[in-house]
Amino acid sequence: MASTPAQRFVCPRCRHAFEEECRYCRECGADMTRASPLEAAGSQPVAVELGGSASIDRRLSDSNQAWLGKIVDGRYKVLEVIGRGGMGVVYRVEHLRMGKIAAMKVLHRDLAEDTEVLARFEREAAAVSRLHHPHTVQVFDFGNAQGALYLLMEYVRGQDLARIIERDGPMPWSRAAPLLAQICGALQEAHELGIVHRDLKPENVLITRSTAGRDYAKVLDFGLAKLDTRNAPKRETERQQIVGTPYFMSPEQIRGEEVDTRSDIYSFGALMFELLTGQHLYNGTTAVGVLTKHLTAEPDAPSIRAQKLGIPPAVDHLCRKALARDPGERWQTAAQLGEAIEEVFRETVTDTTGPGQRTASKALRGGSLVLDPAEHGASEIRLRRSDIDAFEAAIRRRRVLGWLVLIALVLGAGGAAAWWATREPATVTTESEPNHETRQADRIALGTVTTGYLGKRLSPSEGDRDTYVVKLTGARHVVSVSVTGVPNLDLVLTVHEGEGLRTMTIDEGGIGDGEVLHRRVVEGRLVITIGQVMAPGQRHPVENVSDPYELRVTEEVVDAGEAEPNNSEADANPLALTYELRGYLDARRDVDLLRWTGETGAYIVVVRADGLPLQWRTADGKARTPGEARLQLTKGELIRLERADRGSAGGAKSPLPGRDAPWSIVVVR
Fold first, then answer.
1. Which of 386, 530, 571, 580 has a Cα-to-Cα distance from 423 of 20 to 30 A?
2. More confident residue, 520 or 33
3. Rounded CA gap, 513 and 479, in Å?
């Protein structure tokens, strides 16, 4: 009996064959999932069996076809395959209860086998489902069915921008500008919610037509690239995944660094370059060669690469500034870039009566609304967000009676209800929303690490905040509280002691930095709130559902060091002969006061502070640096320790050296 031949996957460009399916050819860097018309004329992307001539289209494989006719989650009937990408297959589906058509992206099955990816998928999908911009492909639902993750999306009829470029070639500036402005609008909303696309490219921009015949862009797959770490080297996955497409990746993505919204600006610049010239920004014989050029080469001006197309010099500036290797030299926001596109469009396109001019002006002037709803031409048979909302509202109304009956049964069980009301709540290690009020606070235990997210904002002007409570037994405890930083967020840590009579707010770090409070004296209970600080001029709080913070509350030995608060005479910590006291200056304005409890006389005071810019004073008022000093001390005299850089920051935040470096003091004869 003949053995089954192994499958081989063949690159459509260089014809190199691979035993394992891969997104990009390891020889020439070509996209293995699609081909240009010229490449397609020679061969389609196929899976070839060695020893035989039969071949199949990988986009219509047995595993893909197996979904056809299936009912997913009891609601969605799979009708046909309509597309395939590097992360999964897209199907046209019908909502059985409403008879509406939608698109369902089913991600590769191996993604659902990774618990970390599964949790990240749920967070990313929940965030993306809140995007409402008309130029973003709407996400209505998500879940896990038949061992695979899926997203239910708006069904858009049209072609992706990459295929339009392949079919029509470079796009004239007069036509491209409105589309670019629309893409900026979609990015702007996502960025304001803390969502970074990470894989912006022509394939992820669908172009449809309004009823008036105008181009209408829809950006899809926000945040999904972060899920695909299957081919990432382990050492990269452990610190920061390299995600994206080589032709459009920012330098910081390639280096595996933390990325922010400016990474999308770079990808937008590469997309803009290809749209205007019909060519990739950089080419190479291998994917590594392309990535290297992003790190080292200077980008051509579009007008130089495509000299016969009459691209205005002002457009060159738009594109090259977006492509700056240093994120600080790029356009800093999508809104800023969109406004610049509109300005250049007005200056360079003289026909102010055509549809392109009117659309581009509306794109930026209206902010989040570009075309009138009637112009979008949404079919009555297509599923829309309003359909989902109305359907779920009807279901909730039908459930009201059932809930009332259930509540009555619970209230009728007097003993059980009494136990439930008086039970000691369990502690958690992962936050449970809602928890933005003290009465909703999550209970956490000393010595554990709790993870949480500053996700969905409470209102357009009020960001998410998380509240935790630590119940302490006994009269007096000394605890330290720390929270790790979150990209794109300036965290603020607030600690309330007891019934809130003593409150400490810590906001020393900047964007991406954590906060810490050392050795705080607490009696009764500790209430901790984590929130964010908005920068001047910032319109909306940031939502970040992808990157967690870690909260730690650690109990310290009471007599092993200082006890905060100790910044007033009444709270000064006692300092005895030969007793070494340690403490921290973890805020720029922090002051630690110590009271000498020994007898009046001459002593040697030894102060140490490695890495901490410290100065100290006694009753003589002289500022001293760490070291030894022979002094006359009077019983009850105060010793003041403070940061030497306490007045250097002005009104702006700056790094706080030595925040976690302790000082020590000892008095000897």
1. 530
2. 520
3. 21
567-669 shares the fold of 433-560: yes
Q: What is the pLDDT of residues 94-108, one digit of tens each?
A: 988 777 888 988 887
What does the pLDDT read at residue 245?
A: 79
Average pLDDT estimate for 452-459: 89
* % of the chain residues with pLDDT over 70: 72
Q: Which of 235, 237, 225, 264 is nearest to 248 (CA)?
A: 264
The answer to whether the beta carbons of residues 128 and 545 sit under 8 Å apart is no
- So where are the chain's domains? 7-60, 159-229+238-376, 433-560, 567-669
DSSP 155-182: ---SEEHHHHHHHH-SPPHHHHHHHHHH
Q: ∠448-453-454 over CA atoms, to 5°? A: 130
What pLDDT shows up at residue 3? 40
Question: Do 287 and 29 form a contact (C-beta atoms < 8 A)?
Answer: yes
Poorest-pLDDT segment among 208-212, 489-493, 647-651, 665-669: 647-651
What is the 8-class DSSP label of residue 157?
A: -
User: Per residue in 505-555, pLDDT tens?
Assistant: 888 888 889 999 988 887 778 899 999 998 888 888 888 888 899 999 998
What pLDDT shows up at residue 186? 92
**Architecture per CATH, 567-669:** Sandwich (2.60)
CB 334 within 8 Å of CB 363: no
- Mean of the per-residue pLDDT values for the chain? 78
| Beta-sheet strands, E only, within 250-393 | none
Q: Alpha-carbon distance 5 to 20, whole Å?
A: 14
Q: Which fold has domain 159-229+238-376?
A: Transferase(Phosphotransferase); domain 1 (1.10.510)
Around 149, how many Cα atoms within 13 Å sit in the side-chain half-sphere?
22
Catalytic residue numbers read 199
Span 562-613, pLDDT tens digits = 888 888 887 889 999 999 999 999 888 889 999 999 999 999 999 999 989 9
**Separation CA 210–CA 159 (nearest Å):** 14
What does pTM read for this prediction?
0.53
Cβ-based burial of 369 (10 A; exposed 0-12, middle 13-18, buried ≥19): middle
pLDDT at residue number 515: 92
State the Cα–Cα distance between residues 104 and 139, nearest whole angstrom: 10
Tokens of 358: 């009117």
Closest CA to 86 of 137, 139, 33: 33
Taking residue 587's Cβ as centre, other Cβ atoms within 10 Å add up to 21
**Amino acid letter at 517?**
L
* Residue in 224, 181, 174 with CA at minimum distance from that of residue 341: 181
Cβ–Cβ < 8 Å for 142, 153: no
CATH 2.40.30.10 fits 433-560, yes or no: no
Angle between helices 313-322 and 334-348 (to 10 degrees): 170
- Give me the pLDDT at residue 161, please: 93
Phi, psi of 624 (to 5 degrees): -120, 150
pLDDT(501) > 60:
no
The one-letter amino acid at 611: G
Q: E strands along 507-609, which residues?
A: 515-522, 525-532, 549-556, 573-575, 581-583, 591-596, 601-608
CB 526 within 8 A of CB 467: no
Q: Which residues contact 68 (CB under 8 A, 6 or more apart)?
A: 78, 79, 80, 81, 91
**In which order are the strands placed within the sheet that holds 466-471?**
442-443, 466-471, 525-532, 491-497, 502-506
End-to-end CA distance of the chain: 96
- The mean pLDDT of 75-97, rounded to a whole number, is 84
